[in-house]
Amino acid sequence: MGPPTFGRAVRRVEDPRLVTGAGTYVDDRQPANLVHAAFLRSYLANAVVRRLDVTGARQAPGVLAAWTDADLQELGSMPTEAPEEAAFVPERRPLANGRVHHVGQPVAVVIAESRQQARDAIDRIEMDLEPLPAVADVETATAPKAALVYPEAPGNISFTIRKKRGAVAAAFKKAEVVVRQRLHNQRLIPMAMETRGALATMDGSRLTVEISSQAPHSALADLAAGLRMDPADIRVIVPEVGGGFGSKGGLYSEELVVAEAARRLRRPVKWIEDRTENCSGTWQARGHVQEVELAALRDGTVLALRSQIRADMGTLAGFGPMVPVGTIDMLTGCYKIPALESTLTGVFTNTTPTSAYRGAGRPEATYLIERMMDLLAVELGRDPAEVRKHNFIGREAFPYRNPAGTTYDSGDYAGTLDRLLAMADYPRLRRDQAAARQAGRLHGIGMAAYVDIGGGGPADRSAVHLEMDGSLTVYTGSTPHGQGHETTWAQLAADVFGLPLERVRVRHGDTDHPSYAQGTWGSRSAATSGAAVLNGTRTLKRQVVGLAASALEAAEADLVLEDGRVYVRGVPSRALSLERLAAWALAQDREAELRANEEFDSPDYVFPFGAHLAVVEVDRDTGRVQILRYLAVDDCGVVINPMIVEGQVHGGTTQGIAQALFEEAAFDPDGQLLTGNLTTYLVPAAPDVPRFELDRTVTPTPRNPIGAKGIGESGTLAAPPTIVNAVMDALGPLGIRHLDMPLTPAKVWEAIRAAPG
Ligand code: MCN
């Protein structure tokens, strides 16, 4: 028998395959008769398509087809999910019909024998665009008399959501201190290492679409709707995925068009996005302008939070409009703030649609409240840790309903912050800072506390099969794209059967499997698919013990399943190996009992939390920020694999640091993307990231049988305010109160130069 694996840092079973280059990604697939798709895209941000003629492309060498929207009328429009408050939801055709609304929007497609021929033929399409005035940012879009992205949406407003709880006006009247700040949470490009891609094959009446996706089952549903096909006639396979970070969660136009091309041409059709297409065509994220006011007493008690948030939706797509709803639900963070008034406006701009990117709405909320807590501490001249602790929701207050109506499951916010401060030896850090300041250095310490949302429905389904060789196969609906589910789900199942890890195989990414999940996003998998795996394996164990009871003619209560065999307690000689039991079940026509299929429908979300701290130094002459130390204490409930959890913290925190210091999707006033490649959009490299000092507390959730909360996104919530708070602490002595992200050397240097101090 293998030692129990749950809770142990076992190595990822998928890694040997991945690090030796043996994984298969969409672009590795080269079926016979393959043809290739390329897309013509809009080069203007707002325009009328005056002429679009694909005749030249159709005559180009190797071309099988060239289509515009006029040729694809039988396809349905692309799906959009918007809040019920939405005043206007634009229809999105797979290819633009008569108008283009952002640079990079697909307008026509060419299918050719080779990728190069398809791309060359694109140049032979004649397209005349008549430019219209464009709005490229939220401020311009909401200014009086702004040009309209969609004539049907006056003021470029897509939706407005208001939340109000408690006596806000009275709180501001009673306040001894009011802190106000306008915060900009800049737009980001998710920038997965593997760009998007799809390969569609029609075999008889069955369509198979291999796709780089985080959500095969929802892709299948959207393909069926778009192609007007019976879902049973479609199979979606997700091979290896080289990162998604939220951006591969919904179905994109190109994927639907590729599927249609395979259906029409009866040849496998592949499309692989290039990096430039990825920058302007893959949905982007964040892009909030937040005006915030915090009312407090001099002792640090926060009385009320008021905010107006304008969220840049771009042209709006997929479930993008739902993302900022997560912001408005989480604005009060870890604090008991009795009164809240906030307005969220979804704003159209002539830019790439925004949607989910790691954190999806919650980093925007965390940044808002954590910057405000620091500004309050500065205003009061008090320590930021003290001000936080003074306002934390106490550990006895759970389940806790926040003023926006979200109910947190469990938490101990002071516990993580205390652990963090002890780990950092905080008093010493402050002494060191005083010495550094004495020496004229710009030395800062920053912290942030966060609470995230993970898990959530609808139900995930897993199947667990006992194979004839006595091993287990787990079918999961979750679709890992870097999270290590093959390892963690195997850990869950192995222990139930007392098997070594290598006797459990985890299969994922195929809608023909007897499993289901809505998608691997929202740090939901451990709390949902993981729970379904655990329940499924427990059910299978009961079935297997039932089979053994019949085979051994013993009472179930007397049987022990251990070490790959079932035996009568106290009589180890009366035993059946799992192989023999499987064979017996087959002979008895009871093989159905070798398979279990379980759903787990989470009663509600889970709420991971934690606290991060950074020590930074700013170079006075160059404005460069150097991170000297980065410490984090996270709590994702009961942990299945601590090494994987740490890896997730490393990844998320790195992306959060990138938002704080480097990354921004920038558009010029005409809506042209200025950061359309990796030389202009600065992603961090290894030397930009410090060594992380990590610790954990464990506060189980009662909302699933594992007690696990999510960890996949936590770092993206915590790191931006941690770093910005640290840099502002460094610059505080110069009289600099706030700078917007990203804190590039140029921006910081300008601020130092202009600083009063
Ligand atoms: N885990 C654990 N114990 C816990 C919680 C989680 O051992 N208490 C493990 C899980 O079993 C899983 C991993 O940690 O192997 C992450 O689990 P979870 O937090 O449930 O998140 P998901 O698996 O649902 O992953 C989604 C999340 C999101 S939303 C984005 S975006 C994201 C991310 O994960 N994108 C990623 N991590 C990523 N990592 C990589 N490498 N690439 C991406 O694109």
Map the helices and strands.
Layout: H1 15-19, E1 35-41, E2 47-53, H2 55-58, E3 63-67, E4 99-100, E5 106-112, H3 115-122, E6 126-131, H4 138-141, E7 157-165, H5 168-174, E8 177-188, E9 197-203, E10 206-211, H6 216-227, E11 234-237, H7 253-265, E12 269-272, H8 275-281, E13 285-296, E14 302-314, H9 323-328, E15 339-348, H10 362-380, H11 384-391, E16 400-401, E17 407-408, H12 413-424, H13 426-438, E18 442-451, E19 454-455, E20 460-466, E21 472-476, H14 485-497, E22 504-507, H15 526-552, E23 559-562, E24 565-568, E25 571-577, H16 578-587, E26 595-600, E27 605-606, E28 609-618, E29 625-635, H17 642-661, E30 692-696, H18 714-731, H19 745-754
Helix pairs in contact: 10-11, 10-18, 12-13, 14-15, 17-18
Pterin cytosine dinucleotide binds near residues 520 and 637.
List keywords for this structure.
Aldehyde Oxidoreductase, domain 4; 19 helices; alpha+beta; 7-stranded mixed sheet; 757 residues; binds pterin cytosine dinucleotide; Aldehyde Oxidoreductase, domain 3
Major sheet: arrangement of strands: 3-5-1-12-9-10-11
- And the CATH topology of the largest domain? Aldehyde Oxidoreductase, domain 4
Structural class: alpha+beta
Q: Judging by the overall fold, what is the CATH architecture of the largest domain?
A: 2-Layer Sandwich
Based on Cα principal axes, name the global outline: globular
Low-confidence stretches: none
% residues in beta strands: 25-35%
Q: How many domains, in number, for the residues?
A: 3
Fraction in helix: 25-40%
Average pLDDT over all residues: 97
